[in-house]
Amino acid sequence: MRIKLKDPYIQENGTLKNKLGIKEYDELNRAERDIGFVKLIDIEETFKQKYDKEYLKTVHKHIFEDIFDWAGEFRTVPIEKVEVVIPGLSVQYSELKSIERDLDKIFSELNDISWQGKSVDQIVPVFTNKLAKLWRVHPFRDGNTRTTLAFAEIYSRENGFPMDIGMLLDNLSRKTNEQGKITRFSIRDKFVLASLDKKDYPEPEHLEALIKRAIQMGIKKEQENQNKMLNNKEAVRESYEEAER
Question: What is the pTM of this model?
Answer without folding.
Answer: 0.77
